[in-house]
Amino acid sequence: MKTSFCLFFIAIFIACTTSNKENSPSYNFTTVFETSKGTQTPTYPEVIKFYKNLAETYPEIHLETIGKTDSGEPLHLVTYNPEGTFDFDKLRKEKTILLVNNGVHPGESDGIDATMLLLRDLANGTKKAPENVVISAIPVYNVGGSLNRNSGTRANQNGPESYGFRGNARNYDLNRDFIKSDTKNAKTFAKIFHKVQPDVFVDNHVSNGADYQYALTHLFTQHNKLGHEAGKFLHETLMPDLENTLAKNNWDITPYVNVFGRTPEAGFSQFMDSPRYSTGYTTLFNSLGLMVETHMLKPYKQRVEGTYALMDALIENIDTKHHTKIKTIRKQTHESFLADVTYPIQWELNREQKSTLLFKGFEGSLVESEVTGQQRLKYDASKPFTKPVDYYNYFQPKKEIIVPKAYVIPQGWHDVLALLRLNQVEMQTVEKDTLIDVEVYHIADYKTYQNPYEGHYPHYNTQVTSSLNKLVFRKGDIVIRTNQPAFRYLIETLEPEAVDSFFNWNFFDTVLQQKEGFSAYVFEDEAKELLEKNPSWNTEFENLKASDETFAKNASQQLQWIYKKSHHYEKAHLRYPIFRILK
What we know:
By secondary structure, the protein is α/β, with parallel strands linked by helices. Helix content is about 35%, strand content about 25%. The chain has 4 domains: about 5-340, 3-Layer(aba) Sandwich (Aminopeptidase); about 365-395, no CATH class; about 395-515 and about 575-580, no CATH class; about 520-565, no CATH class. Helix 4 (about 45-55) packs parallel to helix 6 (about 110-125) and helix 15 (about 520-535) packs across helix 18. The chain is globular and about 90 Å long.
């Protein structure tokens, strides 16, 4: 009797501790891509069902939902760890973390399929498990676009048979929204990014600016902009190692061909990924970023297999060569930036320094169009070539700012503060009304795009003047020190002259409008008195009339000039409402 009870207990214990795989239903993990022989991609519900089943079957796979998207659906995060633990605070101390983003443009579905295949093969043991790398992936980032399925909007693309649409549920291009975060998608991405804190980030895309032999191109975040130890390592070690591994596996790859309307032979430059783009955003936290860009004219099957091969090669290189080094250089890079007195906020191409690519292209020529009768570009795939091509992949700072010790943000700018908090910016609250020495910017000049762009009319070529002032800040206003993990994010969002600053994305447009004015028939008399009481004003005024014919003939402009000199003119007009503490 006692022996029977013990055997029964042992049987129960074994049943309770058996792996998910042995206890779960038997699922078929052959994908739509495979059953269609590489011509189809799954729908959004099919993708999520696949990962739910995978997580239910294999303890190495974890699936969770995080936040919302504009479609109303959540974002999913799937993670593969051969040890079966998924506490990111712990994982960051033990392993190198890779985050993969798929379907930012759902018509570019190559990464969606390739990631499904890769995580399945790792989970079921078809591929050897990496010992030092944890892989997290967003299965489909643009959920709304994925649900808007069609077969025509990718006019030049060679498969799959049907796919999602580029715009999200609110018709935003999500790969222009990472810094401004107009969408719920982008806000949730920030939550995922800071939860995972990836060492390496991959965003899978498809593109075509020209025709050439490659199915596979890479777009690493610009190495000078990434900067310091991380930029050097990315450019001199990680990129060539990845290229060499792919070559050994019979995959040709070249840098993203940044050419439109002409052939690549004349040379081309690297794409500069500012913070509106995914890899530009992740750079702000010193993650090593890479966009995979397959060539849309190549067959879908080949493109998916190429994306798989690239991610596999990247994981192999990180796992066997670089996992410890990457952790170290990210820390070193952050410390190097904190030690710098200045920080570059604008970049320009360095035409004095270049690389040479042994480029595999197709002969192209201008021929007469049978449609328009004008000249058109036509490639001839029957005439392949391999020839040296100039590749300009070095950039240099165009404008730098002196790094402040801190920024002060009045509490009323709650939309800006909300984004800073979302990105885990450390901040302090002013405890009582306080007089603080600050540097004040005034907007001296800016241009504004005349056509709408991603829900905005962005500014560009912004210029500021600065002055030192003592200003009273109220209890509840916010002080943000720059010596913190979000150092780069702060500078590139809060410095108005930075390319993708919050100012250039229209967050502060209310300060550009003058709120108070004057009635000329009343102010005329006071204007006369002001010039009489201020001889230097009068001299400046007369000189301006003498030198500027337009000004001399415009009474309204003249009165406005005097008004802006007077105590009536509001201090808030054109004063940038984020203040810098220099000491």
